[in-house]
Amino acid sequence: MTYSSIGIIALLVQLIINYDVLRKSAADDIIPAHRSYRKFLLGVIAYYISDILWGILDSFHLIGPLYADTVVYYIAMALSVFLWTKYVIVFLNEDTRIGKLIKTTGTLFFIMEMIVLAVNLFVPILFRFNEKGVYEAGIVRHIMLIVQMMLFISMSVYTLILGRKTDERKQLRYRTIGFFGVEMILLVAVQLYFPLLPLYSVGYLLGTCLLHTFVLEDEKAEYRKTLEDILRREQKHKQELGSARHLAYTDPLTGIWNKHAYLEATERLDMGINDGTVTEFGVIVCDLNGLKNINDTLGHEEGDNYIKNGCMLICDKFPNSPVYRIGGDEFAVLLEGRDYADRNALLLELDRQIEGNLLSGSVVVSTGIDVFSPERDSSFSAVFERADKKMYERKRFLKSIRAGI
């Protein structure tokens, strides 16, 4: 059972430290090597389980199940080596001849192991259990371990050479992967002389801990930094778009929405009318009286102040609705929410204030209002035309009052 305890500890440590790796994460899309590493870990876990069972079955001298588990043990070992070669090549992102050769060698090693296991059923060239039920390694087992050592050393050398060409930030990852191969070579070499020691499990435990600390964690830190950079760029882009949109849709004189924004808003209303999602809205058309006279007599600067004062008056009266400057002295209010519900009272207040302004010489605004009716209106323009007509009627009325003053 002492043999199995090493495998149990290795398995538990593996599951604990690699919990986040074994779960699929968004980092996989940015770091493809994580997917290959997860597969390698699963291969290592399969090896641990077979190794743990081997120790338990051996302690009870259950030869039949022990033989079957030994076959699984060798399959898991070969699979983990094969998956390690795949991970290293994906990590290095090397589609070179050497990279392909290492990957192909890993595949051939796995196939060769399967063939040897099949032959071992008839001729014990890999392993056997003697008359006393004691495990004995065959000559081919030593050959397969030597092949593994050659695979590990070739990958380590290749990784360390490539690591010298990378930037300093990534060199530690390359060295760690290279060292993984070196420590596996040393433990496999010892395993040749002590086949009943769980040195392979110890090697994987030490190696994967190093990989998690110096490769996976470093990659995740880089991944987080990449995400932060992306978020910063997106925020900056949104701010730039927001600023550009603000400039494109804002009237520079008054600071309210301009005609471009107005046209987009009316386009959305038309779409809503067509699909039936818009059922109510109101339009107030506003026009400033006497702007031309102010420009001609007092100058355009005073004319601009007159426009801003008129705009302020309209916005103050309809605070819950968007106000648009759609011409030099023309404004439109798209009544929404509370302003729509209180439209008649609000417009009455504004009209009374305007009539008072006629006496005081303040800004004068002519207004016309109308509301959308689903039964008769098929577009926004129909509502606007009725409101515009009423605005001109109001303008004539206000001119007549001024003429009588």
The outline comes out as rod-shaped
β content, as a range?
5-15%
Number of strands: 6
Q: Would you tell me the structural class of the helices and strands? A: alpha+beta
Mean pLDDT: 87
Tally of separate domains: 2
For the largest beta-sheet, the strand count, sense and barrel status come to:
4 strands, antiparallel
Strand order of the largest sheet: 4-5-3-6
The CATH class of the largest domain is Mainly Alpha
Spans of at least 5 consecutive residues whose pLDDT stays below 50 are none
Query: What CATH architecture label of the largest domain applies?
Result: Up-down Bundle
Radius of gyration, in Å, reads 41 Å
| Helix content range | over 70%
CATH topology term of the largest domain = Rhopdopsin 7-helix transmembrane proteins
SSE sequence, one letter per element: HHHHHHEEHHHHEHHEEHHEH
Calculate the terminal CA-CA distance, rounded to whole Å.
Answer: 112 Å
Number of helices: 15
